[in-house]
From TrEMBL:
Highest taxon listed in the record's lineage: Eukaryota
Name of the protein this chain belongs to: ABC1 atypical kinase-like domain-containing protein
InterPro entries to which the protein is assigned, alphabetical: ABC1_dom (IPR004147), Kinase-like_dom_sf (IPR011009), Mito_struct-func_regulator (IPR051130)
Gene3D superfamilies: Transferase(Phosphotransferase) domain 1
Phylogenetic classification of the source organism: Eukaryota, Viridiplantae, Streptophyta, Embryophyta, Tracheophyta
One Pfam family here: ABC1
Taxonomic source organism: Aegilops tauschii subsp. strangulata
């Protein structure tokens, strides 16, 4: 892995020399950190047990039990849990499980991780979250692959909470202020687009239909973004934000 990281670092430097607006150093450092964590299975086991402790009072979230006597840095032995990928709608219908309730449980799961525990799963794709039926429409969310976690800075968590409050209340000034605090500057105007699918000057509350005019403005905003804008935006984001974006 060290050779791969060195190769990527060298390529990143060459790209930055040829295209000064493309800077990936921070992203590469975060990638190196997370990969070193994921290749140590004892660390994954510890993350798993910490997550179990965080959700011990939650009867929906299930984390497979770790068998420490059969676990090393190279081998992880855990309880086998059955279930289907969280985005398998055909399965949910056949099992008489409400997709809306599953979505709500997912939002609550990651909301609790971010805002209460500050300990966030770093690879939450559908294959790492299983829905396990419990009969009569009830279910468990089985959380797998605990190799990558991010411990969020308390100030970041508070500011991120303020950002969501500003997004929901359509407080443009506060969104821009928080953008300065997060270090993204002029790109703060894209926060509503990223998180709520709305423009910075939108008057449409969450849960309501946006107008055709606003849809046109969204397309215009997206079309106006160049690769240098995307690169600069990603480079300016704090590492904590990069993890959060993967949960959205």
């Amino acid at each position: 892995m060290k050779l791969d990281i060195m190769t990527m670092s060298l390529l990143s430097k060459y790209v930055s020399l040829i295209f000064p607006d493309y800077r990936f150093e921070k992203i590469l450092l975060e990638f190196e950190r997370t990969m070193s964590m994921e290749l140590d299975f004892t660390q994954e086991a510890k993350n798993s047990e910490r997550t179990t402790s965080c959700f011990r009072k939650n009867d929906v979230v299930k984390v497979p039990h770790v068998f420490w006597e059969l676990t090393t840095k190279e081998v992880l032995t855990m309880e086998f849990c059955t279930g289907h990928k969280v985005d398998d709608l055909d399965f949910l219908r056949k099992a008489d499980i409400s997709p809306t309730k599953v979505a709500k449980a997912l939002i609550e799961l990651f909301g609790e991780m971010i805002f209460i525990h500050g300990f966030v799963h770093g690879d939450p794709h559908p294959g790492n979250i299983l829905v396990s039926p419990r009969g009569q429409g009830r279910f468990s969310l089985v959380l797998l692959d605990h190799g990558i976690y991010k411990e969020l800075d308390p100030k970041f968590r508070l500011d991120y909470c303020k950002l969501w409050k500003a997004l929901i209340s359509l407080d443009v000034q506060k969104i821009l202020e928080l953008g300065e605090q997060f270090g993204v500057g002029k790109y703060a105007k894209y926060f509503p687009l990223i998180f709520t699918g709305r423009t910075i000057d939108s008057k449409s509350a969450l849960g309501t239909q946006i107008s055709g005019e606003e849809k046109t403005r969204i397309k215009q905003d997206l079309n106006s973004l160049g690769m240098d804008d995307i690169s600069s935006f990603m480079e300016s984001l704090p590492p904590d934000f990069l993890v959060i974006l993967r949960t959205e």
